[in-house]
Amino acid sequence: MKSLVVIAIGKNTALACREQLHRLLGNQVNVSHYYAEGSLPHNIKADLILFASQLAYRRTKPYVNKTCPILIARRSINYHEVNKLFQISAGTDVLLVNDSLASANQTIALLQTLGIDHINYYPFAQGLISYPRLKIAVTPGEKERVPDFVDEIIDIKARLIDITTLVELLLQLRLLDLYAEFLSANYMQDILQLIKNGNQMIYESNKMKTQLETILNTVHDGIIATDEMRQISVFNPIAEKLLHVQAQNALHSPIDKITNPNILQIFQEKMNSQEALLKVNGHHLLVTVSTLYPETNDNSKVYTFKDVSEIRRLEESVRRKLLQEHNVARYTFAQIVGQSKKIRQTLEIAKKMSHSDSTILIQGESGTGKELLAQSIHNASPRHAGPFIAVNFAALTENLLESELFGYTEGAFTGANKGGSSGLFEAAHKGTIFLDEIGDAPLPFQVKLLRVLQEQQIRRVGSSNLIPIDVRVIVATNQDLKPLIKKGLFRQDLYYRLNVLPIKIPPLRERVDDILLLCKVFYQNYTHSKDSNQATMYFQYIAPYLLKYNWPGNIRELQNIVEYLLNICQNKPPHFTDLPEELQSSCNFKPSAAKNKNQLKASICQEIKQANQENRSIGRRSLAQNLIIPENQVRVLLEELAKETWIISQKGRSGLKINPLYENKQYHTPDSCDKI
Ligand SMILES: Nc1ncnc2c1ncn2[C@@H]1O[C@H](COP(=O)(O)OP(=O)(O)OP(=O)(O)O)[C@@H](O)[C@H]1O
């Protein structure tokens, strides 16, 4: 099951958003929530993190795992509740209470945009020093924040996550196909409610009619309403556009007098609260008809319709955003953790490569830090002040690739923006473009990429002009490209063009010396601890297992395991049995079972002897690591060896020493000394 976390500033907003999402996605997605005013755990992780507002994002982003995809919600007014405000007489002063001053101001702006401006709003949030002591408060779901001096509270309930955010969210969770229909039906419900509220208002005053019109004019769907006399009472601008009919020619006409075939088509549909797909002027429209007051004899109806290509356009625009993952390089070489010879050599080579402009091909298993390295190279290069554009081929449809990377001209394809658009290569001008997962690039695109690399110029889709570009290209792959070439999935000529400066990042299992260091760094990052000893102690019992594990997911996996352990064992160092199942079962070595106690003592003496000869200090921890046994077991064995006078334990840096009497002897137990 996918996971989604909503983070808001206040509890009520968090709960309302969670509730809205749970109602929509409950079967497919596990939705949980946090709020900045409550206790936030560190390193919040999910398939997607949704911030209820920009402010929530700014305040809580340090608590969120950097690798998780995030989205900041756009929230719209809760149409079901807003009509309560029309009961307040015009000119009344009210406090608008919300969880922060910024969100109070935002709600005021939203209400005013919707035309609900017959009352005077004064923002109020906790911590505000000066505010009028008014008797009426309006709040979007934050009743308990309303100050005591207020007599009447009008709760218009929390603002809901809007349709465009929901579509983005479903896309990111790869659930849009499953929910598209349901989503549009739900959305229609909201619009319907809006009209219903509006129709009541119309009877009440002209001012409210204007307000309703403002709302109707701002929605993105075509809306036609008919009253109980079967006359057209609403015909909004989108309806005009989609049906190619001017509102003034349709409004107030009885529907049986309508002759325009486009409108007729809508009315003739024998639908009852159902959806139908109509083709009008070459566009596919999804039409819904609903009866406004089913419980009465009133036959007022609302027809809503939208161009079905709209959702598609939205989808494309989100894909575009996904495609361009980042445009700033955050990492530098100094942030790449590693002391092993292999990683030091890799970094040395990469630093040299950063000075040139030639194409770099980074190869390495997933999670080894390829993107980290690409960013560091950019930041160390003469181009560091220019853009860093990261593109992930695995997230792309073939369709979109060319236009997004090379740009397009006006009219190049249906849906192309007016005036055309530049592509990511142009966006990376004077900087670096990072093409990740290059092994996934479709073959036809590979040909075009090769041409661009050779000619250093791009041609926008639909254009015959060549545009020169000054871009450094870094590509990465976790697949071995040679077998792909053999299978005809990767072009050999492109491979040679990319492989100018090849660099391999070794997998973590080949740089064992980095494992504990990385564990400590991630421990310190998560716990914000500055004490490196504390970090060392934390891993004392499990270090041998971590060192022996083969880390198929590399550093990303290690990062996850440290986080897992910190959740499972917050206050005490974890033991073997605390490790994730997968790691435990892959540890098919049972160290203590492999050797009996005396064999282990002999090995310990041997290790100490060797360290003494090499003038190296040796202690409990390094013994545990070398012999792959838990540190507390080493402690017990050392105590016995000390009692048996085989070793001398010295305080301070010099560590353990072998008793000079036994320097040239193999360890034996006291009762077997006669055998030696
Ligand atoms: N040497 C390192 N020091 C600190 N963090 C690292 C190191 N190497 C990788 N990481 C962290 O590991 C995670 C994975 O790194 P990155 O995304 O660069 O890997 P990748 O090889 O590009 O993975 P993929 O092939 O799956 O895209 C990131 O969170 C990154 O910050």
Produce a short descriptive summary.
Residues 336-567 form the Sigma-54 factor interaction domain. This protein has 676 residues and is an alpha/beta fold.
Description:
The chain is an alpha/beta fold and 676 residues long. It folds into five domains: 82-157, Rossmann fold (3-Layer(aba) Sandwich), CATH 3.40.50; 219-312, Beta-Lactamase (2-Layer Sandwich), CATH 3.30.450.20; 330-506, Rossmann fold, CATH 3.40.50.300; 509-586, Helicase, Ruva Protein, domain 3, CATH 1.10.8; 597-662, Arc Repressor Mutant, subunit A (Orthogonal Bundle), CATH 1.10.10. The protein is built from 27 helices and 25 strands. The strands form seven sheets. The protein has a six-stranded mixed β-sheet. Strands 12-11-15-14-13 form a five-stranded antiparallel β-sheet, sandwiched between helices. Strands 2-1-3-4 form a four-stranded parallel β-sheet. The longest helix is centred in the first third of the chain and has 29 residues, at 176-204. It is globular, with a radius of gyration of 33 Å. The two termini are 64 Å apart. This is Transcriptional regulator containing PAS, AAA-type ATPase, and DNA-binding Fis domains. One of its GO terms (molecular function) is ATP binding. InterPro entries: AAA+_ATPase (IPR003593), AAA_lid_NorR (IPR058031), P-loop_NTPase (IPR027417), PAS (IPR000014), PAS-like_dom_sf (IPR035965), PAS_fold (IPR013767), Sigma_54_int (IPR002078), Sigma_54_int_dom_ATP-bd_1 (IPR025662). Residues 336-567 form the Sigma-54 factor interaction domain. It holds the Pfam family AAA_lid_14.
